[in-house]
Design brief:
This protein is of the alpha+beta class and about 550 residues long. About 25% of the residues lie in helices and about 30% in strands. The radius of gyration is 39 Å and the shape is elongated. The relative contact order is 0.08.
Length: about 550
């Protein structure tokens, strides 16, 4: 080049960028063909960020098709005239170098590593991140110990460096104003803080990281029906106004608020909507702690007398789903007034192999059912046996579900009233931790000889059901329809499980009912959490929509 210095922007006019590097003077350019390397010397009166330098290096590599580019920058001292309090003018030198700590001509060439990957054996490392905390500690020697916590997006680490007293104020000012820093030093275990730190040799101010703003680019915008604000304990940290404004920015037309058990964000949400001319609709709701009180134990009840005739039954199957599995055994006992009237028992050919895991439980093998009749022949016989009796089973929806499914396939009807002793047990014996048939029988002092065989389980259930009938009569129950309400007043909400359910409002009536439910949950049914009994929800369900949390 000629002795006359030119600016970067004048020599490289096709370089489209911004920053102080454009106004830097080019002192010299050397091309080394053997090593395929380009060297360029620059002089600048203003600080050049590391990002500007790296971007210019990439441009030069592409333009001259070289493997390596070395840019040397001579940053001149920038002088600023300042007036003192007494009016005197004083010339101060402003440090424009990006290097905060270390040799002013230092150059970091090592690869940047993530903080989370740094260990005791990492040795010399280079990290880049934001300073989230800084502290200076004066030592007896007169020096200062600088401690900065650097976060790079993966984790945070403390970087330490010893600073001379005469540059402490300058370093503190530079550290405070630096958007990001690149730190080079040795990773080692610090016996004082008892953690891995970096003893920094060089700290360079770096450009702020460009924030990438996420956008919803879907043509048809979704409606978020499950959202937590900072009012949700241990489950939300974002203010409701930030969430609503983000939804507006993404083009959403509606959004629901469903905090855990509270509605404290509603007023603020309403103000945000009004301030934005109502361009987004807020669906007010709550993620409730629903308590399944008053479980249903009687289905299709017809106000039959409690001393009616019952058909106590049990089935064994090849699996759990009536859509894919088959019945292998069916057993039933008719009872009235505590006396056995008749019994029904038979194997059923499932027309498929019985899984080994099922055999281990039921002890029914393929050989035992091979010569048995299929369900299309057994089921009509059972329906004739049961007649119009009230059916009784433990976890009745499982047994009746199978029977009703196969009845429908054969064009038959099974519309009998049926009672679930599992639901009765949960209301009648709330102190029991488990309500399996064998456990209930043991707790009641009933001997169980064989489990998981149809007729044997039925015999056990008959004895358990007799105890239940006796206790129901003591509560004044006279018809089967009164069973569900027999222990309603004795329920202990502390011992009942809770399930998460999202409740949304449809209108102002629903909003009013939601406020009532929240009030009841905090005033009348609070135990560790604000609980809403299902029976109370049903009473105030007008204007509300409920769904199970997935």
């Amino acid at each position: 080049m000629t002795n006359e210095a030119k600016l970067v922007k004048d020599v490289f006019r096709d370089y489209e960028s911004r920053g102080n590097i454009l106004n830097a003077e080019i002192l010299n350019i050397n091309m080394f063909k053997k090593t395929n390397k380009l060297e360029i010397d620059l002089k600048s009166s203003k600080k050049i960020q590391l990002g500007e330098k790296l971007e210019f290096e990439f441009y030069l590599k592409s333009k001259f098709r070289v493997q390596d580019v070395e840019i040397k920058i001579d940053v001149q001292e920038e002088k600023v005239v300042k007036k003192s309090k007494n009016g005197e003018e004083k010339e101060e030198i402003v440090d424009t170098s990006p290097i905060i700590i270390g040799n002013k001509k230092a150059k970091i060439t090592d690869r940047i590593v993530k903080v989370k990957d740094i260990g005791m054996d990492s040795g010399k490392v280079v990290i880049c991140g934001e300073i989230i905390k800084q502290e200076f500690k004066e030592l007896k020697s007169g020096k200062f110990l600088l401690m900065i916590n650097v976060y790079d997006g993966s984790s945070t680490i403390t970087c330490k460096s010893f600073i001379e007293a005469d540059v402490k104020d300058t370093v503190e000012r530079r550290i405070s104003s630096a958007p990001r820093v690149t730190v080079s030093g040795d990773a080692q275990y610090d016996p004082f803080s008892k953690e891995i730190v970096i003893m920094a040799r060089t700290v360079i101010e770096t450009e702020a990281k460009k924030e990438m703003s996420r956008m919803d680019r879907a043509e048809e915008k979704r409606v978020e029906l499950h959202m937590h604000t900072q009012m949700s304990q241990m489950d939300g940290v974002t203010p409701v106004e930030d969430l609503i404004n983000r939804a507006r920015k993404w083009g959403m037309k509606s959004i629901a608020i469903t905090d855990h058990g509270v509605v404290q964000s509603f007023p603020k949400a309403n103000h945000v909507v009004e301030d934005n001319n109502g361009d987004i609709k807020v669906i007010y709701g709550v993620e409730a702690y629903l308590v399944p009180d008053g479980q249903t134990s009687v289905y299709r009840g017809k106000n039959q007398d409690l001393d009616s005739e019952y058909c106590v039954l049990d089935i064994e199957t090849t699996g759990l789903s009536f859509r894919t599995e088959k019945i292998t055994e069916l057993g039933a006992i008719k009872i009235k007034n505590g006396e056995i009237i008749d019994t029904f028992e038979c194997f059923v050919n499932p027309e498929k192999p019985i899984p080994y895991d099922v055999i281990k439980v039921t002890h029914i093998t393929d050989d035992m059912v091979r010569d048995a009749e299929t369900i299309d022949k057994v089921l009509p016989k059972f329906l004739e046996f049961a007649g119009d009796d009230i059916l009784v089973a433990h976890n009745a929806n499982f047994d009746i579900g199978f029977l009703r499914h196969f009845a429908e396939l054969q064009g038959l009807r099974l519309d009998n009233t049926y009672i679930d002793t599992l639901a009765i047990s949960r209301d009648m014996f709330p102190d029991y931790k488990k309500h399996k048939l064998g456990i209930i029988a043991d707790n009641l002092g009933i001997r169980v000889d064989v489990a998981h065989r149809a007729l044997d389980d039925v015999k056990t259930l008959v004895k358990v059901f007799e105890v239940m009938i006796k206790k129901l009569k003591e509560k004044g129950v006279k018809t089967v329809n009164e069973i569900d309400n027999a222990y309603k007043d004795d329920l202990n909400l502390k011992q009942l499980p809770t399930y998460h359910a999202v409740i949304l409002t449809k209108d102002y009536v629903g909003l009013k009912n939601l406020y009532k439910l929240i009030s009841f949950s905090h005033l009348d049914y609070f135990y560790k959490k604000p609980k809403i009994p299902r029976s109370v929800y049903k009473k105030y369900s007008e204007g509300l929509i409920i769904r199970k949390c997935l």
